[in-house]
Design a protein that fits this description.
The protein is α/β, with parallel strands linked by helices. The chain is built from 15 helices and 25 strands. The chain is globular, with a radius of gyration of 23 Å.
């Protein structure tokens, strides 16, 4: 009998933080990267909204500060200054990067990876991420190639002379119709043709399948990878209290048999409280109750970026009380992109309007496309001022600047996103409180106390549901899958897995940038 081949693991990031997951699983015949996200926890130690890495230095700053793993053979050559000498292990073979969902802590560092490494995901995730890139996000799928040049005796990188790289995509399934492929051919540049992107369909060549799971972004999927000693299971971020809870239950049923050899398990809430959690149905009901109580009043709904499930909840609640949801042009472009992969995603029209906020330019490619395609749905700030009770304005914290144009005379702010998890985020809420006070908007879902602390609503007052399973549910998921080996990731408490599951299975918490045999 032939000896079983080694299964090797190289953990690059996310082994002791929430987000920034980058795990490479490799045999002699196949190499698969599990996500490649931006680590906001580490990034926030050195940078903020206004202090960012220097684009002219490529990956130099990120490597120097330890924000990017020091490994060889992984990064774009055009982002490496001549003096940059990487010292870490050679990554070797990578056949694809498996992307579970369209949150940037799972995909936001793809712009740094060699463009010849394909990205594999489902169509909805890819469409969502391209929309993010087209509206100013990281260049995950195409970009002008950088060139080394000298400026005042400094060696720097700058955009090349029209050369553009594109990344090959492997889709888990074929999207309906031709709209997706047409969307993927669109360039964010007004006068520059985007080179054709090769699209391949089906994950059989990668020895895996993508299965839907419930999370706070549509299109979320977990991967089941064939292995000699049993399946390797990577659920990505997962929960069972959203509108697609049944998808998670089906995923667990399919992934548990045969018994998984390795489970790469997120542990965002592994050490969290054990009590009841808000569900998306709770959010729907609570939002409708608030809107019923504030009939005729100006209202804003604030939910997380790319949380289109929550957007649809508020659009439905608004329609039930006779309001129309008003979204930003960037959100309209996102809906348009997602609709090409999943026609059930609602686009601007009778019940969703697009805000025409003043600006000195035509706007980004996404804004222009949204205004052109949904011109009949565009609405001006003055129309909202004249009839505030007819609309529900979908703003994030970064959009409150447009209140200067809307000029409400009192109203309500429905906060339906995550709590503050850092001092910097708490300050964001204090700043938001100043905006709300200036325009006499009553907050729902949180309040700023006189001493500056932020208190978030619980129970029936809450308008938010976590995108992650609580501790008790995580334990049920792990025990249902019953793997031989658990590899914790996406958690600040990897030791909790040993405490909870060490008697049931082997727990391996791999060190960063060192090969581990599974």
């Amino acid at each position: 009998m032939a000896a079983k081949k080694d299964l090797r693991l190289l953990a690059l990031d996310g082994n002791d933080t929430v987000g920034g997951t980058k795990y490479l699983v490799q045999t002699d015949e196949l190499g698969l990267m599990l996500d490649f996200g931006m680590n906001y926890s580490k990034h926030g130690r050195f940078y903020d909204e206004f202090l960012q890495p220097r684009a002219a230095s490529g990956i130099w700053d990120l490597i120097t500060l330890g924000l990017l793993p020091d490994v060889q053979g992984l990064y774009r050559h055009d982002l490496m200054l001549p003096d940059l000498k990487l010292q870490g292990p050679e990554v070797g073979r990578i056949d694809a990067i498996l992307v579970t969902h369209a949150h940037l802590d799972h995909a936001g560092a793809l712009n740094l990876v060699r463009p010849d490494i394909p990205v594999a995901a489902n169509p909805l995730t890819l469409a969502t991420l391209k929309a993010v890139q087209d509206c100013g996000g990281p260049a995950m799928f195409y970009e002008e190639t950088k060139e080394v040049t000298e400026v005042r005796d400094n060696t720097v990188l700058k955009a090349g002379r029209g050369n553009v790289w594109t990344r090959e995509l492997i889709l888990s399934e074929r999207p309906p119709g031709s709209a997706f492929e047409e969307f993927w051919a669109e360039s964010k540049w007004k006068k520059k043709q985007l080179p054709a992107t090769r699209l391949r369909y089906g994950l059989d060549e990668l020895g895996c399948q993508a299965l839907p799971v419930d999370h706070s972004v549509k299109g979320s999927a977990g991967f089941v990878i064939r292995g000699e000693r049993g399946p390797l299971v990577y659920p990505g971020d997962i929960r069972t209290h959203g509108l697609r809870a049944e998808a998670t239950r089906e995923f667990l049923e399919k992934a548990r048999s045969p018994r998984p050899h390795v489970l790469f398990m997120e542990g965002t809430n592994i050490s969290g409280p054990q009590g009841e959690v808000n569900t998306e149905e709770d959010v729907r009901r609570n939002a409708k109750d608030v809107l019923d109580d504030i009939a005729g009043k100006f209202a804003i709904a604030d939910f997380g970026a790319r949380n289109v499930e929550r957007l649809e909840i508020f659009a439905e609640a608004a329609e039930e009380v006779g309001r129309q949801l008003v979204v930003t042009p960037k959100d309209a472009y996102l809906l348009r992109a997602m609709h090409t992969a999943d026609p059930s995603v609602q686009v601007p029209g009778d019940h969703i309007r697009v805000l025409n906020a003043p600006r000195s330019t035509e706007g980004s490619h996404g804004e222009i496309a949204a205004f052109e395609e949904y011109s009949e749905a565009v609405i001006s700030p003055s129309a909202i001022r004249e009839s505030p009770g007819d609309f529900l304005v979908a703003f994030s914290m970064n959009d409150v600047k447009h209140l200067v144009d809307l000029r409400p005379e009192g109203g309500h702010y429905l906060y339906s996103s995550s709590e503050a998890f850092s001092e910097e985020q708490a300050l964001d809420f204090v700043r938001l409180g100043h905006w709300l006070a200036r325009f006499e908007l009553e907050p729902h879902g949180f309040r700023v106390l006189p001493d500056g602390r932020v208190e978030f609503a619980k129970g029936p007052e809450s308008l938010h549901a976590s995108g992650h399973a609580p501790a008790a549910e995580l334990e049920r998921i792990v025990r249902t899958l019953n793997p031989e080996v658990i590899v914790p990731l996406h958690t600040g408490h990897p030791e909790a897995f040993q405490e909870k599951f060490g008697g049931q299975c082997k727990v391996i918490a791999p060190p960063l940038c060192r090969w581990t045999v599974l």
